[in-house]
């Protein structure tokens, strides 16, 4: 079971690295830039969480596999785009939703291991889930997508809350994690399918 | 007395959260984006200081009140703007100056508790005071205002230095803190009133 | 010998601070902004490395000299540009290459002292070498140059790998460091001279 979660985690890393590599391509970065943006997108959220928590050493320092998987995903993306033009956007969105689910639940879990209060644990889940994408957008000089696009972070918050609630019941750990991930996944898929968005807050620029 | 400083600190959090929410509104972010930018503006400076110092757990992890106050301020800002268009810019500037004063003195104090050298303590005061606003501007894809606007950081530096100087005298703690805050506040108000700016360094772009 | 490395380190700080001050000038920042960008460019890479490693206190907190040197370099740059217009771009590029070499090797060394795996040590070398420049570009609202320009980070990676390889042999420490720095320096100089670049990854923007 633990093995399965580890593999899911690595899958999330790979998927996020792909979104990073694609963004780097849109900015015409060189191959090193592609690699760095991919790695930051994949591992930035968890690193941010661990640095804020003072949780050392961070995951990718403990285990080289993370960097390796992110790098391979980046190189694979470049080759894939070079050889076969079209990217399966729908497939990528689905994979991204799955990665988000895994990262969110994992981040909430780490926070609870540090005996954080429930509110802070949810925040750590959100940071883990969306932090990498936010860093990617900042470095690529974009206003972060997740603050403007269809419902994204709300999915994290909901999944994290479900995780906290189910943990109070006498359920097996794997079931709690799986159910919380499912919640993130379903909300994301619904948001993508029906293009659900949060209301926006418009203010005229008065400078 | 300690209670008063805690309340001042929370007031600073609320004020900075409002400036964050307003900036998010100028970028037409969704409600989640507004919340995140408000929280980062309010708590980013202190978090940056604590992470650089290795001072764990950071304030908002220790005490849920900080996140709560920042969130309420953000929601309140959105409702306020929706219901009654005009924002009292002058009032906001005054409140911001007060928040800056509190954060700067508090940051310098934390640094001294870590036995930092005076020069570094001043830097920590500045990071605590202006860090949140800088993070807000970076995420919102703007060149940070405080590097271009009227005197802002200079007020922090002056207040922090006054705090260090007065601590050498045999004054009660609350008086030292209050005097240093007053210095920040007065310099900021003078800068706003007479539109004082530091000289700029212009270089032509030769790329 | 150790003294020599310390002086090299300070030289690297000064050089990176100059590049930061020049970038701030291109953004018409005020004098405080120039100072902050210079300090972040000079010390940001090492700080990022130390925060990710949980290596406290970070160098410039331990030793005030770093901040002092960066500040003096920033002030000197402004005066220099005011008094004698032209900047010797070639001289600056050479100095920057030297700073990069010192920082990269130093970062790799710190990582090994923390018993990191070789792959992660190389990453820490790269973060130390290029982190400050990346932070400078992010704050100044630019897509980081090193992800687009001629070979830069590759020089770090190569130098870091050479450092790791030579350490396995029974060579004196100073020789290992010097050789690795020379590798970074030579690759950078070759890249500048022949304008070598990594291939870019172009993707059309489809938003």
UniProtKB/TrEMBL annotation, chains A, B, C:
It is found in: Cell membrane. It is a multi-pass membrane protein. Keywords: Cell membrane, Membrane, Transmembrane, Transmembrane helix. Residues 7-80, 94-167 form the Glycine transporter domain. It holds the Pfam family Gly_transporter. InterPro entries: Gly_transporter (IPR005115). It comes from the Bacteria. The keyword Membrane applies. The keyword Membrane applies. The chain crosses the membrane at residues 6-24, 31-53, 65-83, 90-108, 120-139, 151-170, 176-196. Belongs to the UPF0126 family. This is Trimeric intracellular cation channel family protein. It comes from Metapseudomonas resinovorans (Pseudomonas resinovorans).
